[in-house]
Design goal:
mainly alpha; two-stranded antiparallel ribbon; 5 helices; 2 strands; elongated
Length: about 130
């Protein structure tokens, strides 16, 4: 069995303004990267659903990188804020619940969550260990 996924299938699950050609590129990538694992672990229907959701997540990540403009301010306390609430978090939750074999794990790890910080010890700390 091969996963037969079309741009119309993707639009049914996640409406997008992307052209058929752009959607097809993402479909091709998903099929190339994940089809073997999906087909080896799931029924035809589940494999197709997971491939469709993976395509939706990739499209969402590429088109909503900064979100929609939520507010602007100027004369001249310049500011702009973005609404990123229309993200693919619901899709991530569905993939995580359905993909019990972990075929799409690497896709879930790239959901745009970043953490910044530092770790270490204070060199001036005289109560330290060394």
């Amino acid at each position: 069995m091969a996963i037969n996924l079309t741009p119309d299938d993707v639009r049914e699950l996640c409406p997008t303004n992307a052209s058929d050609a752009v959607i097809q590129i993402y479909i091709d990538v998903v099929i190339e990267k994940y089809e073997q694992c999906l087909e080896g672990n799931y029924s035809e229907a589940t494999a197709k659903l997971l491939a469709t959701m993976a395509t939706c997540v990739m499209l969402s990540n590429s088109s909503n990188s900064s979100g929609k403009v939520k507010s602007k301010r100027a004369p001249n306390g310049s500011s702009i804020s973005y609404d990123t609430s229309e993200d693919a978090s619901g899709m991530y939750n569905n993939i995580e619940a359905i993909d019990t074999s972990g075929c799409l794990t690497d896709l879930l790890l790239t959901d745009g969550v970043f953490a910044f910080g530092t770790a270490g010890s204070n060199l001036n700390d005289t109560n330290g260990c060394c």
